[in-house]
Amino acid sequence: MTTLGRTLKIRLYPVANQATQLLEMSREYQRLANLVSQWVFDHDFPLSSLKINHALYKVLRRESPLNSQMIQSVFRTVVARYKTVLEQMKHHPYRYQDDDKNWVRVTKDLTWLFKPLHFSRPQADLVRQSNYSFVNSLTEISLTTLGKRTKMPFTIKGFKQYFQSGWKMGTAKLVHSRGKWYLHIGITKEVADFDSTVSSRVVGIDRGLRFLATTFDQQGKTRFFDGEKVLLKRHKFQKIRTELQHRGTKSAKKRLKQLQQRENRWMTDINHQLSKTLVTLYGPQTLFVLEDLTDVTFNTDDLPKSVRGSHRSWAFYQLETFLTYKAQAIQSQVLKVNAAFTSQRCPKCGLVEKNNRRHDIHEYHCQQCQYRSNDDRLGAMNIAMLGQEWLDGVKHPKIRKTTATG
Ligand SMILES: [Zn+2]
Fold it and tell me: How far is the CA of 353 from the centre of ligand 1 (A)?
């Protein structure tokens, strides 16, 4: 079994006085979070809700209008935030050169903070049932406030399914953004794993630049997911980026950062769509086979120089991550296989020959058996073949180099 996790985003429609109540509650929550954060900072960072509870609960319960559940929730929120920061600090050690010019790395911990973590916006974490629940046949949500609980309508676009089919709701975050109120609810579900012993569909996926993905399944069907537009747009982004980098002014740097964020959001969207299309197309009990791209470089001959390099990196990994995550939800699986020779092996006679591939015309032509195919398709075929070998019990399927026999 695997536990899936998602965040359900719900829009709330409070009337004026309810909105005031929500704001008051989240301001009080924020105030306590900052008090607790200060205490944690002053007491050697005990990252345990229990310890904080022991030291602060009674005092806070006396002086705050928040109910007891919510006060406990403040402790958890603060502890979680410090843990996140600690994790980030571990990944960014401090580096300096000592007197002998040797580089020294020092792992940071929370004592490197020079002030307590600050909760800068009104917020509140609500516990299911105690602080929020759905009432009146799912037409209203009932929420804790500083006074009585209050009910209000809500909407969840396209997420009705999460109210059925075994999803469990956890803690929810009350979010106030641009005058609107939202509830972000963490939900989880236990699902069955991909079962490699029952018959399954194998889909080889070749990731590339000209085509974002080329897929090949056992029925012999090939699908191309065009990457041309993506390439063009990335090229455009790259051009503006180079200009801004040349300018080097403060405002150019700011624009550069915004541009980067825009490009990332846009690419993320493409990867979401592509992975969604793939799981919808092939459905449950599918083995999606990808090349393991660690230490692999792509042929980028047909690309403008400006987009080589940067292109291969995170976008491919992101697609892999999204696909893995979406596949799990429908009892399918992503398998990564060794990438060696996947673009050189002839699927008909098995000959592995680099020169069979003509990059300039995107064709694979086998010198031994005369088999011809589009080169992206060929990659997907070989990847699918490795996936089938894995299903047949080969632990680390791999193409081995053979030489011409003819
Ligand atoms: Zn051949």
Answer: 9
Mind listing the pLDDT tens digit for each residue in 361-386?
Answer: 889 999 999 999 999 999 999 999 99
Two tokens at 274?
């592509």
Phi, psi dihedrals of residue 136, rounded to the nearest 5°: 50, 60
- The 10s digit of each residue's pLDDT in 194-218 is 988 887 899 999 988 778 899 999 8
Distance 214 CA to ligand 1 centre (A): 21
Distance 356 CA to ligand 1 centre (A): 9
Beta-bridge partner residues of 174: 124, 183
Cα(386) to centroid(ligand 1), Å:
17
CB 128 within 8 A of CB 169: yes
**Cα 7 from chain centroid (whole Å):** 12
What's the burial of 114, exposed, middle or buried (CB within 10 Å: 0-12/13-18/19+)? exposed
Cα–ligand 1 centroid distance for 14 (angstroms): 68
How far is ligand 1, taken at its centre, from the CA of residue 212, in Å?
Answer: 26
Task: Say how many Å lie between the CA of residue 312 and the centre of ligand 1.
Answer: 29
SS3 string, 257-319, reads: HHHHHHHHHHHHHHHHHHHHHHHHHHCCCEEEEEECCCCCCCCCCCCCHHHCCHHHCHHHHHH
| Collapsed DSSP state (helix, strand, coil) of residue 187 | strand
Task: Answer whether 0.90 is exceeded by the pTM.
Answer: no
